[in-house]
Amino acid sequence: MKQCSFDPGLIVFSQVRNFFAASLYDLFELQIACETESMRLERMLNGEAQASQSKDSKMVILRNLNHCVKALEESSPGSDLHCILSSKQLYSSIELNGQTSPQAALALEACKRAHLYRYGPTSDTLTSTLMELNRTLYD
Predict the structure, then answer these.
(1) Number of structural domains found in the chain
(2) Which residue in 15, 62, 70, 89 has a CA-CA distance of 20 to 30 Å to 32?
């Protein structure tokens, strides 16, 4: 599947680029659903119903989550969806790249911003609890 990308010369302002990405949110969501379903079907065909997703497949999902979170931060910061997807992005990034990776650090900051927009300033403990709850809300 062809990945979505933006030509910087085509859309100059990052905010405009993010609003454009937000308009494609349903497409990103559909791509994630298709990837997830194709992996499930592949595991069923191979008799591996309990097998975990491949790292490549998880990277595709994480890349799509990254697009969605950036778009939501511009178009509806602090929304339920922004908090939920930024939490999923954080935990996916940690799983794929490690707790101390630069990618995980960026995802943590994005997740904290989403929760700050939604709930205002909270303690680190409460913020961590909210991030975990939002990650598992629709699993």
Answers:
(1) 1
(2) 15
Which residue, among 96, 37, 26, 100, has the nearest Cα to 64 in the 3D structure? Answer: 26
For residue 46, the SS3 value is coil
Domain-embedded: residue 39: yes
Give the integer Cα–Cα distance in Å for 111 and 128: 10
Q: Which long-range contacts (CB under 8 A, 24 or more apart) does 122-127 make?
A: none
Q: Say which residue the tokens 């990650």 belong to.
A: 135
pLDDT tier for residue 53 given thresholds of 50, 70 and 90: low
Give mean pLDDT, residues 95-108: 95
Average pLDDT for the chain: 79
By the 8 A CB rule, do 90 and 111 touch? yes
Crossing angle between the packed helical segments 80-97 and 55-75, to the nearest 10 degrees: 150
Q: Which domain holds residue 88?
A: 14-136
Report in angstroms the alpha-carbon separations of 21 from 3, 52, 72, 129.
Answer: 12, 30, 9, 29
Looking at the predicted structure, is the pLDDT value of residue 6 above 60?
A: no
Asked whether residue 5 is assigned to any structural domain, the reply reads no
Question: Residues 128-137: what's their mean pLDDT?
Answer: 90
Structure tokens given for 47 = 């008799």
